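EI: anyone free to look at a 164-residue chain?
SC: sure, send it
EI:
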Amino acid sequence: MGLLNQRFENGNVLLTSVDDVLAWGRLSSLWAMQFGLACCAIEMMATGASHYDLDRFGTFFRSSPRQADVMIVAGTVTLKMASRIKTLYDQMAEPRYVLSMGSCANCGGPYWEHGYHVLKGVDRVIPVDVYVPGCPPRPEALMEGLLKLKEKIRKERLILKQTA
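SC: here you go
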């Protein structure tokens, strides 16, 4: 079901819910805060460049957490960086989303067994909404992850329904 639930014959009256309008506005304009830490950051930058043109999906990179809706964590998260990621996440306005990009951000990558300094997944510090697998994932995989996030936003309800 789209934004419009019902259209009357004369075309001047449209019925929809506030939730549908808010979801449509949020998923049509995702502002992403890039948190590139390793080789996955190169693929994230390639996604935003002219060849893949992430802007056509309504996703724009921002450098401030206060202007961002989604945080893209791309690369190896060290224990030293974990507190910084948590701080930046806390500075983002609600509703906020996290996309974990690459094997290192998802589960520690090739360093998980022998690296004492590597966090075994960013989800141990902040909640993750979408995981993008790969080492490093291609730009197409990141775009697919953002489309999955948009599907989640479309189904999400912000207005709480009162129960009797």
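EI: Strands lie at 6-7, 14-15, 30-36, 59-62, 70-74, 97-101, 130-132.
SC: 👍
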